[in-house]
Each structure stands twice: as C-alpha cells, then as structure tokens.
Amino acid sequence: MRLRYSLRAQADLEAIFDYLGEHAPTRTRGARIEIKRRIEQLREFPMMAPLTEIAGVRELSITRHPYKIYYEIRGDELYVLHIRHTRRRPWRGN
Fold first, then answer.
1. N or C: which end of the chain has fewer CB within 10 A?
2. Segment 40-62, tens digit of pLDDT
3. Mean of the pLDDT values across residues 2-9?
4. What are the sequence ranges of the domains in the chain?
5. What is the rounded distance in angstroms from the CA atom of residue 2 to the CA atom of residue 23?
6. Looking at residues 17-35, what average pLDDT do you find?
7. Phi, psi at residue 49, to the nearest 5°?
8. 68-93: pLDDT as tens digits
9. What single string gives the DSSP state of each residue in the chain?
C-alpha cells in the first residue's frame, strides 16, 4: 500500500519534532521512531485502527507517546490526514 501525507500531516510532524527538540530533546528520537513505525504498521494492516465519527477516517493512538494519527484508505493508498496530541480537543475533521 502506498503511503501519502497531507500537507497538514507533514506540518504536524515538523511541529511535533520541533517542539520536542526544544522542550524534551531526549524524547525526540523515540517519538520520531515510534510514530514512523506505527505508520508503517498501518501500511501492512490499514484496517487495524477504529473508524471515527468522520466518514472514512480512522484514528490510531500511539501508545508510548500522546499522539493520534488520523488517516483514510483511498484505494491502494494510506493517506495520513493529521497527527494530533491527545491533550488537545478531539479532531472533528476541519
């Protein structure tokens, strides 16, 4: 399955890693590895995360770090829409 990122998801990753690099540098590498690993798992098992109330959007929690990955399956593509910290309000798709 091909993997694609929305511009928003790309910006989310940059912001997460920049923030951690500034505020918790010892956690940056672990967070980067774990987020990327979980996204790669989705390529193999795209249906593993539950659907949200947003039509067609699934939500995968990163257990070691407080983030959620929102994505869609579009044909043979896994399309990462947004990556969000769990302490923020739930994402409603906007």
1. C
2. 999 999 999 999 999 999 999 99
3. 96
4. 2-85
5. 33
6. 89
7. -95, 150
8. 999 999 999 999 999 999 887 777 78
9. -EEEE-HHHHHHHHHHHHHHHHH-HHHHHHHHHHHHHHHHHHHH-TTSSPB-SSTTEEEEEETTTTEEEEEEEETTEEEEEEEEETTSPPP---
Looking at domain 2-85, its CATH superfamily turns out to be RelE-like (3.30.2310.20)
Instruction: Report the alpha-carbon distance of residue 20 to residue 57 in Å, rounded.
Output: 27
Q: Which residues contact 80 (CB under 8 A, 6 or more apart)?
A: 3, 4, 5, 6, 9, 39, 69, 70, 71
Phi, psi torsion values for 86, nearest 5 degrees: -70, -15
